[in-house]
Amino acid sequence: MGDQMQFIVEKLNQEPFRKNYNLISFDSLESLQLLQLLSDVLGEIDPKHAVDIRDELPEQTAKRMLHLLGILKYKPPGTVSDLSAFRQGLVTGSKPVIHPVLHWLLQRTNELKKRAYLARFLVKLEVPAEFLQDDAVADFNKQYEELMEAFKNLHKEHEQLKISGLSTAEIRRDISAMEEEKDQLAKRVERLKKRVETVQNHQRMLEIARQLRLEKEREESLAQQKQEQKSQLFHAEQRLQRAQVQLKEMQHVVADSKPESLMKKLEEEINFNSYLVTEKIPREMESKKTSVYYLQKVAAEPAMTQADLTALEREINEVNAEMNQLVEKRMMKYEPTDSKFSMYRQQASIISRKKEAKAEELQAAKEEMSSLERQLEQKSSQAHELEGSEVLTEDEFKQYVTKLRSKNTFYKKKRLEIAEITAEYGILQRTEELLRQRHEAIQQQLQAIEEKKGISGYSYTQEELERVSAVKSEMDEVKGQTLDNMSEMVKKLNAMVAEKKASLAPVIKELRQLRQNCQELTQERDEKKIQYDSCAAGLETNRSALEQEVKGLLEECAQEESNYRYMNCVKRTLEMQLQRAKEEMKAYVSPDPQERRKAVREQYTRIILEQENLGKKLREKQKVVRESHGPNMKQMKMWQDFEQLMECKRECFLKQQNQAAIGQVIQEGGKDRLVL
């Protein structure tokens, strides 16, 4: 924490802030001064935030800072509860919140300046989907996105050029070349002027050339305007076509609407919306307020240790056990009236829950229906915009569906007949195969018997004779009975036709009546559907208006609740500051010296005096050291010389002792030789 404050103070004392802070003065800043300091740092990063916080509301200040910190991608430490504490600390100017933000901002000021500059052009403006249905708004939004992409590309090129970097020598060569070219152009212009001055009426010719150039530029601008007006006319025609189609649809819907059904639907819609406004939404708001109250209460309490959590769990278990005992006692009493009331209460609660569930389902269904209607409008507009495409009307679509159903029925009938014929063909094939097998077996048995009797081929010859005779007799009979059979067949067919007509006559009458009833019911269904569509359109309009009103009321309620919370926070902060000021004043004016010493002013005054005394002592010590530096250096030099001198003497003395010992040894050796 000390290193962090030291870094902040050093950065603030440098350019461009030049605050001249020290650790004590920076630590003694009030919350309002800290917020102003943070606003100044943010203003250095983004000039739009260089404002005086006294000229704006605290809520606006907090929103402005939070918005810029979100753009700069500052991530406060901690969880979601810590985030709410961070917002509250930013509003109140808490030091544990402001100091890390300042440290983070001052560490990367240049990078954040670049990010804030890019955010002015790259933070996309979200446009609601219902506004994008308008062609003008959609065109502006598309143009806005294209400009944003163009800015991204230009910025990338700019950064690449900065990274690549042209050398100063190349830039100087380019500048010199451009200057030479400029001089050449100036000389050429002078020569042309001199040459033109010799021509008669040169001023008039120059004026005509200038007018020609202006007219060409005007022609280009007019051509561009003509192209723009053509595109606008095309878009306007498309909008007119869509509006005409919508008008026809609305006229078709409203044509056969009845006021009774509309009033009934409106009453149902009003009842549903009144239930939402009077029961459902207030209940949800009350539950939200209760949960927020408990969350604020939990957040305001100090941090809990494991022992506190254990004690709370033990207390919760005791309360649950006591509740269970009370429930058992009540069940042991078992009063019939209470049981009836409990049954009624249970039924009422079940009905209320079902009512809430159905209301939620209805609301979800309405939202889904509105989204589907929007999708239908988008698809229809896309279909209108496609070239060469036609959208079927309701009657044409009904005729198409009817024709498709009849074709489908005919196809299913024919497919069923084909399946029956295929099945019958399979059965006949199987029967034929079985009969052929039996015939072959009988023929084999007959041939075996003929071979056994010695008359092989008899049966075949007899069969041939019988077949020929049968064919002859049949031909004779056919020749004789052809006319009789034909006359009988005609009589039978006439009788069958008459019988069928007689049997089908009541069925045909009934079918005609049913067809007439079907046409009447179809017409009635179409009329009811038109009434339903018109009523649904009117109710949808009223529902949208009521939804907007409810949405506005909810937003107003949320705004008032936010203001209430903010005022509570400000009030709590002011109360704490007032309490601190009262305690400080009480301690400062107290006659008791011990109480007076506890005052913050006295403590800071004592600390300042101690620091000033310490500074004086250090300055005096520095002065003494500076004054005695020269003599001390000389004395140190003399001591070093003296040390070298004594070292030389010691070496000379040691050498002298060594030489004396060597001479004595030599003398003793000479005496010994003389004695010998």
Account of the protein in words:
It is a single chain. The protein has 676 residues and is mostly helical. It has helices at residues 2-13, 23-27, 31-45, 58-71, 80-92, 95-107, 109-122, 135-164, 168-197, 202-254, 259-300, 306-333, 336-385, 394-453, 458-589, 593-598, 600-627, 629-675. The longest helix is centred in the C-terminal third of the chain and has 132 residues, at 458-589. Residues 3-126 form the IFT81 calponin homology domain. Keywords: Acetylation, Cell projection, Cilium, Cilium biogenesis/degradation, Coiled coil, Cytoplasm, Cytoskeleton, Differentiation, Phosphoprotein, Spermatogenesis. One of its GO terms (biological process) is cilium assembly.
**Second rung of CATH, namely the architecture of the domain at 1-123:** Orthogonal Bundle
Radius of gyration: 55 Å
Helix content: over 70%
Say which CATH homologous superfamily of the domain at 1-123 is assigned. Answer: Intraflagellar transport protein 81, N-terminal domain
